[in-house]
């Protein structure tokens, strides 16, 4: 299936994985789990993959093509949210006993929706931009570029989303703990998976362009 791939063909595959991961992360984000004092959304199971793919796309294809994928991911996620909410509003037959659970899992408040859109767009675009800018000066320091861009991107993502959604509803210290916990977990996630990220980048660089 993946034999004799070119960089152009793999770009399409990475785009599909990126958009699918984004939509999945927003669906499972409605459930949370607790580690010590940190309460985290289940989206962090898959969401860091988006930033890893962001690094790969920026490193191999440049900022413009990475930006296209980020905006496409936003568009497809927006379409998914619209479809979810349309289906929630449609008349439900009496025998469909899971209507409330369906609405709880797939429905999004305006505040959550706007917060997730802003945090995703700003965090992902900044991550890709930093990755490309640092490449000019630190070309041989891939680990530094991947992790530093993630710290900034994921940090902005966590600050924007959690502040936007929870400000005024929970104490400030709880918001700060959530921001620190979410950003830290995602950065650690990328550090652990860095060998895979490096392997994929080197693999794609060795492929023919067309």
Structure description:
The structure is a single chain. This protein has 210 residues and is mainly alpha-helical. Helix content is 76%, strand content 4%. It has seven helices and two strands; from the N terminus they run H-E-E-H-H-H-H-H-H. It has a two-stranded antiparallel ribbon. Helix 1 (7-28) runs parallel beside helix 3, helix 3 packs antiparallel against helix 4 (99-106) and helix 5 (110-137) packs antiparallel against helix 6 (142-166). The protein is globular and about 60 Å long.
The tally of helices reads 7
User: Given the C-alpha coordinates, what overall shape results?
Assistant: globular
Record the strand order, biggest sheet.
1-2
Spans where pLDDT lies below 50 across 5 or more residues: none
Spatial separation of the terminal alpha carbons: 17 Å
Strand content: under 5%
Structural class by sheet pairing and helices = mainly alpha
Annotation, overall tally of beta strands: 2
SSE ordering? HEEHHHHHH
Q: What value does the average pLDDT take?
A: 84
Global Rg: 18 Å
Helix content: over 70%
| Oligomeric organization of the protein chains | single chain
**Largest sheet: number of strands, sense, barrel closure:** 2 strands, antiparallel
Characteristics of this structure?
210 residues; 2 strands; mainly alpha; two-stranded antiparallel ribbon
Draw up the topology in text.
Layout: H1 7-28, E1 32-35, E2 38-41, H2 47-61, H3 63-89, H4 99-106, H5 110-137, H6 142-166, H7 172-205
Antiparallel strand pairs: 1-2
Helix pairs in contact: 1-2, 1-3, 2-3, 2-5, 2-7, 3-4, 3-5, 5-6, 6-7
């Amino acid at each position: 299936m993946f034999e004799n791939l070119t960089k152009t063909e793999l770009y399409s595959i990475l785009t599909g994985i990126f958009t699918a991961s984004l939509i999945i992360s927003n669906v499972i984000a409605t459930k949370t789990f607790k580690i010590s004092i940190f309460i985290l959304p289940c989206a962090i199971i898959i969401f860091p993959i988006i930033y890893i793919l962001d690094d790969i796309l920026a490193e191999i294809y440049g900022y413009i093509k990475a930006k296209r994928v980020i905006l496409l991911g936003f568009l497809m996620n927006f379409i998914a949210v619209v479809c979810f909410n349309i289906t929630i509003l449609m008349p439900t037959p009496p025998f469909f006993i899971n209507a409330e659970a369906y609405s709880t899992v797939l429905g999004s408040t305006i505040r959550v929706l706007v917060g997730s859109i802003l945090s995703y767009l700003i965090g992902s675009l900044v991550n890709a931009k930093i990755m490309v800018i640092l490449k000019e000066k630190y070309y041989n320091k891939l680990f530094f570029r991947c992790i530093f861009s993630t710290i900034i991107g994921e940090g902005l993502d966590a600050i924007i989303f959690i502040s936007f959604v929870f400000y005024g509803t929970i104490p400030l210290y709880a918001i700060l703990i959530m921001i620190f916990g979410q950003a830290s977990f995602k950065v650690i996630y990328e550090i652990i998976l860095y060998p895979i990220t490096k392997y994929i980048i080197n693999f794609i660089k060795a492929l023919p362009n067309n």
